[in-house]
Amino acid sequence: MTDFVFGVDVGGTSTKVGLVDREGTVHGENRISTAGHADPADFVAALAETFEAARAAAGDPKVLGIGIGAPNANPFRGTIEQAPNLPWKGTVELCRMVTEAIGVPSFLTNDANAAALGEKIYGGGKGMTNLMVVTLGTGVGSGFVVGDQLMHGHTGFAGELGHVTVAPKGVAPGRVCGCGRIDCLETYSSVTGHVRTAQELLARGLESSLQGQDVHGEAIHQAALNGDALALECYRITGTILGRALANTVAITSPEAVFLFGGLAGSGDLILDPTLAALEASMLPIFRGVRLEISQLQDRNAAILGSGALAFHQLEQGA
Amino acid sequence: MTDFVFGVDVGGTSTKVGLVDREGTVHGENRISTAGHADPADFVAALAETFEAARAAAGDPKVLGIGIGAPNANPFRGTIEQAPNLPWKGTVELCRMVTEAIGVPSFLTNDANAAALGEKIYGGGKGMTNLMVVTLGTGVGSGFVVGDQLMHGHTGFAGELGHVTVAPKGVAPGRVCGCGRIDCLETYSSVTGHVRTAQELLARGLESSLQGQDVHGEAIHQAALNGDALALECYRITGTILGRALANTVAITSPEAVFLFGGLAGSGDLILDPTLAALEASMLPIFRGVRLEISQLQDRNAAILGSGALAFHQLEQGA
After folding, report:
1. Interface predicted TM-score (ipTM) of this complex, two decimals
2. Nearest CA in chain B to A159
């Protein structure tokens, strides 16, 4: 009999769900609205309904647990706290509510931690006890598996790689971050930061097919694929700053591999090559065996798989 | 009946040993020569002799385990590997040899990890499950307790905080590190780096009681206690660079507290105040509750206590 868990990825607009088995197949994938359920109790009721539908469609299997990835998750309390991009104010005891409504143990963590477990259980990190996943999207996030456990830290918010401060190379320092501080890594190496770098290079008046265009991540990607020198330089800068920050992170946590995931990771070697070059150039020799790879969940149901992996991992830890 | 372990701190010149109880009292403290035993087997024989003498002096108690702190320790294999400052070449299977000679389980880790466990069991970190200790001596080292476990990483060498690269403030960048790289934290915030900063400030011709003197860590300390402006500025620079590096480390690992230990930590508030100011100024708001303190083992038998703590910790983990 196949073991199943229910993976739930809470996003600001919609929540993705699906039953996940140990081989990483997602069954009965579905979405429910997050934004449309201003009352968390209504959201949980909709979640329970979707859960039953997915279970019925799969032939009523036993479901061992529910894993939830969400922004502003407190993994110790199973709560979502002060989430600016969700419709729920204050503290929501999501795990308690879900467990009560569905009658199955539930577990909660943030998206980057779920991605780290997803990589470990379903991706390139199989069999690894120390790894990190870096998410390169609107911001930069990271999740760490340390000694076969998620690294939560004292606050539950360990892994804020996007908010380490960096000394940029190739572009001017002094970028203001959404957190109010200056020169956080995500002002350079998120998709947003990558676009800011393109805009800075364009403002210098360099020749490029991007001049006069609406610059966004995919436009830079296409231009780079077409050999546009400015777009290629933009990847070189974004990757170099990222690689140098990763070298410092590796010196502290010493993972077996670092996986890049999310928007920018979709550019493959364009981002991987300059990041790897800077990582290797900046790294203490004893750490030079560390692998840098694009996440193997990059083009799969990563969010649901990560949440499912959380459930399997926590159930095993508790066992 | 009191529980005892045997704490062993292997240094380049001599090795400190002693029986340690759960309250942190060291009994039968002793030293044996490291440098004088070119053959590891002779060293282990001398260690066994000292162990029996300490045990006899304490009334022949049962000893539960042996904890060993040593440079270039491989905690996974219990070996010391390619240690440049020890007389032993290649790989030494120290744990296996010690366990066979003395008949008690033995455990090995590097000095900074032992310090982290010492702080957790005997110092200011009692009851904490996430903390870090930073050793500020000839170099900069660090040990992390993450989720109640030592963070070893994949290589066993996690915690190389001394070799994260930094952008210095107040002094010129470009310092060459012993590792061959440029601008590692320890070129600025070790005792050695602190002295280099004093020399740089003196070379500017600034007025100071240190002008024309042989500058070393204790001379800077004394000058600062006497209100010497250059010495105080030197602490400000050393602490600011350290505090900024700690802010980035806290963003990744989120400890409950950071403890400063070793040579520079002996300067107390002179180093603590500028480090804390930079840490708080550079820190993401969600981590602002983190404590920064001087190690409570600073003026105690820290090395032996740390090694003893390792033995108690590993025995409990195995139980």
Report:
1. 0.93
2. B252
